[in-house]
Amino acid sequence: MTGFRPAYPLLTERLELRPHRMDDLDDLFAFHSRPEVVRYTPWPVRNREETRAALERKLPQGEVTADGQWLVLAIELRETGTVIGEVLLKWASEADRQGEIGFALHTDYQGKGLAAEAAREMLRVGFEELGLHRIVAILDDRNAASAQLLERLGMRREAHHLHASQFKGEWANEYAYALLDDEWRAGRS
Fold this sequence. Notes:
Blueprint: E1 10-11, E2 15-19, H1 25-32, H2 35-38, H3 48-58, E3 69-77, E4 82-93, E5 98-105, H4 114-129, E6 134-140, H5 144-152, E7 156-167, E8 170-180, H6 181-188
Helix pairs in contact: 1-3
């Protein structure tokens, strides 16, 4: 495969998933600046300029051209046009058809099923459009809300790695979740 770009926008019941645009800056800053949102993300709390720099790096990530790259999409609430989070899909290995999913959502929009709605669409894209065989999610074992979300999506906890990485100045334990393409198809029927 020479690359992959979904047909945008990706629409769900309440959301539009699409590549980032520079005019997303205010909405992105609204959640990148919140400690409770970024607690379990790889990035720190960001000021406006740091958010702008991060946004500029995200602009070309609406497509993947080689394995190892991330598809990084804005989660826009269709009702208001507000960007309320991000959802990610890594094309981890073309040869082994492996992927990885991730997400972050503004605290004001958590607990409403919106992250699950966005993640479910990214799983669909990964399995049905990119042709992945297996998609994983790696998370801090203290992130109970994300673990519950992954389980609601049908993902299975496969591992618990102790002191798996240095994360924000401390050793972090990680859960590894996974879903296979045949399990995805069985859950859709």
